[in-house]
From TrEMBL:
InterPro entries: CBS_dom, CBS_dom_sf, Diverse_CBS-Domain. It comes from the Archaea. Keywords: CBS domain. Residues 17-75, 81-137 form the CBS domain. This is CBS domain-containing protein. PANTHER family: CBS DOMAIN-CONTAINING PROTEIN, CBS DOMAIN-CONTAINING PROTEIN CBSX3, MITOCHONDRIAL. Coiled coil: none annotated. It comes from Pyrobaculum aerophilum. It holds the Pfam family CBS. SUPFAM superfamilies: CBS-domain pair.
Length: 139
């Protein structure tokens, strides 16, 4: 029986993440966060503390909630953000990010360094782009 060597593709989250993460503070107005999302063409904003560590995330889904509940535009982010967002370390494998996003049904995954500071973002779109690139290579 021939020895078959399994090939690994050790791509890390840091290889596919977007480094320009849009952030805000917990007291920032939801209208200002919506403007940031629109101007930067992103689906989420990470809410950080004074050390740059994620304490929440505001996503497109949260904006739907804001509109559905007719909340005033000066509502602070902390009132609508998802607290303690799920994050992933920059050195984690891409497959780990994919599994985490699929299992938890999330579309935005803040990436943190060893100290817990936000250094990037992986979105569902990034995963799709990565997968499409891999599939085109395998053709």
């Amino acid at each position: 029986m021939p020895l078959v060597k399994k090939r690994e593709l050790p791509l890390r989250v840091s290889d596919i993440m977007v480094k320009n993460v849009i952030t805000a503070k917990e007291n920032e107005k939801i209208r200002d966060i919506a403007i940031k999302m629109y101007e930067n063409r992103v689906g989420s904003v990470v809410i950080i503390d004074d050390e740059g560590k994620p304490i929440g995330i505001v996503t497109e889904r949260d904006m739907v909630y804001v509109l559905a509940r007719a909340l005033p535009p000066d509502t602070p982010a902390w009132m609508v953000m998802t607290e303690n967002p799920v994050v992933i370390n920059e050195n984690a494998l891409v497959i780990e990010a994919m599994d985490k996003m699929r299992e938890l049904n999330i579309r935005h995954l803040p990436v943190v360094d060893q100290s817990g500071k936000v250094v990037g973002m992986v979105s569902f779109r990034d995963i799709v782009d990565f997968t499409a690139t891999l599939l085109s290579i395998l053709r």
